[in-house]
Amino acid sequence: EAGVAQSPRYKIIEKRQSVAFWCNPISGHATLYWYQQILGQGPKLLIQFQNNGVVDDSQLPKDRFSAERLKGVDSTLKIQPAKLEDSAVYLCASSLAGAVDTQYFGPGTRLTVL
Amino acid sequence: QKEVEQNSGPLSVPEGAIASLNCTYSDRGSQSFFWYRQYSGKSPELIMSIYSNGDKEDGRFTAQLNKASQYVSLLIRDSQPSDSATYLCAVNRLGGNNRLAFGKGNQVVVIP
């Protein structure tokens, strides 16, 4: 079974530029999550989708971050404009629908904002 | 108060010894508790889940949950160099849509 796929793996941009990350979850997983992990910290949930609907985006900085999952499968997370403090690893995870299902993480995208 | 706290600094243990990690959480209504292992530069990987008070054993790993005291712990027996990683405690909030709150993690270094 293929795991969660993410691209790109690394990205370096200047502040105020825009960037987009892509995620393809495990086949059949209805729930998709985007996390931000700053160095030395645990992952922080940015947004959660159930199929193509948003379940939780309470911690998403909506003035600069946006995400979509138009067809209920793959998803894109965008930052525009980027700030220095956005430098982090952006992790995508997926799970079967349900309250306690295991979340499987992708390899992440390491973003460096200069 | 942070939702999930892991306050211990890096833990160095000799090979073959027991590594003990602790985690406390603030939401008394939390229902599900997880330990993830994260190797440097890699993504988190689930190693243990526990839902009721008491101990749960899986191979060399034992998770312990005490809801009254709001803490969960992880014991790694017969520690191996391959256990050297950061261990993240995660808690599923009551009524949450499988939203996990993570602690900052504890680094474990197993010395051969």
Feature tags:
heterodimer, A: 114 residues, mainly beta, seven-stranded mixed sheet, four-stranded antiparallel sheet, 0% helix, 48% strand, globular, B: 112 residues, six-stranded mixed sheet, five-stranded antiparallel sheet, 11 strands
Secondary-structure-based class of chain A equals mainly beta
Note the quaternary state here. heterodimer
The description of the largest β-sheet of chain B is: 6 strands, mixed
DSSP helix fraction of chain B: under 10%
| Arithmetic mean pLDDT of chain B | 92
Order of helices and strands of chain A: EEEEEEEEEEE
Low-confidence stretches of chain B are: none
Kindly, what is the distance between the CA atoms of the first and last residues of chain A, rounded to a whole number of angstroms?
Answer: 37 Å
Shape of chain A: globular
Number of helices of chain A: 0
How does this model look, in words?
The complex is a heterodimer of chains A (114) and B (112). By secondary structure, chain A is an all-beta fold. Chain A has strands at 5-7, 10-13, 19-24, 31-37, 44-50, 53-56, 65-68, 75-79, 88-95, 104-105, 109-113. Chain A contains no helices and 11 strands. In chain A, the strands form 2 sheets. In chain A, strands 2, 4, 5, 6, 9, 10 and 11 form a 7-stranded mixed beta sheet that branches. A 4-stranded antiparallel beta sheet of chain A has the order 1-3-8-7, with no helix packed on it. Chain A is globular, with a radius of gyration of 13 Å. In chain A, 37% of the residues are buried. The mean pLDDT of chain A is 93. By secondary structure, chain B is mostly beta strands. In chain B, the strands form 2 sheets. In chain B, strands 2, 4, 5, 9, 10 and 11 form a 6-stranded mixed beta sheet that branches. At the A-B interface, β5 and β10 of A face β5, β9 and β10 of B.
